[in-house]
Q: What sequence folds into this?
């Protein structure tokens, strides 16, 4: 019975407050965060720094020997130190009709505006703004599949990173499609 009386008293006190009773001229129904913000000890938490461990620059690499449970990829940005590891990454996706179809669809959305429909660097964006490299040069043909995958994922030069827009397996499909554009047979 006494507990009910205490709850009723708290409810009546809460209902008796108006918007004018709250600090800074709060002109809305106060919420729990507003009440917590009135307590000095909690207010420092309310305005404290937010630690976001998964934001830029990059999350910490996993401890050696760990197995990711989410299927997350280890970040390998294109740097001179990472080139041996990038070039050693094998293409896990077989060049099948389904892979090439998915790769072509992603290529048309993300790559074709700059690199053009055939990969020659003659896309619509290139006509107006940039000098986009051709994917058909001997140098581009010598790139490993892992290197092309890293370029799609992390970007390079003025090319933006598409790793957040093109999922992991689809990136390999784009690599397979680029190889077909370069004249490599499946």
A:
């Amino acid at each position: 019975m006494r507990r009910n009386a205490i709850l009723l008293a708290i409810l009546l006190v809460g209902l008796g407050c108006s918007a004018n009773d709250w600090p800074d001229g709060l002109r809305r129904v106060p919420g729990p965060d507003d009440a917590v913000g009135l307590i000095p000890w909690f207010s420092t938490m309310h305005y404290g720094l937010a630690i976001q461990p998964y934001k830029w620059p990059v999350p910490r690499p996993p401890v050696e020997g760990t197995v990711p449970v989410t299927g997350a990829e280890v970040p390998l940005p294109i740097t001179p130190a990472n080139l041996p590891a990038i070039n050693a990454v094998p293409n896990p996706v077989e060049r099948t009709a389904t892979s090439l179809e998915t790769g072509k669809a992603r290529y048309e959305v993300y790559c074709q505006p700059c690199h053009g429909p055939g990969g020659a660097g003659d896309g619509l964006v290139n006509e107006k703004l940039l000098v986009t490299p051709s994917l058909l040069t001997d140098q581009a043909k010598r790139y490993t599949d892992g290197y092309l995958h890293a370029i799609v994922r992390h970007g390079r030069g003025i090319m933006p990173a598409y790793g957040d827009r093109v999922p992991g397996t689809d990136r390999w499909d784009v690599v397979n499609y680029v190889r077909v554009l370069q004249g490599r047979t499946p």
Q: What stands out?
A: The longest helix spans residues 97-115.
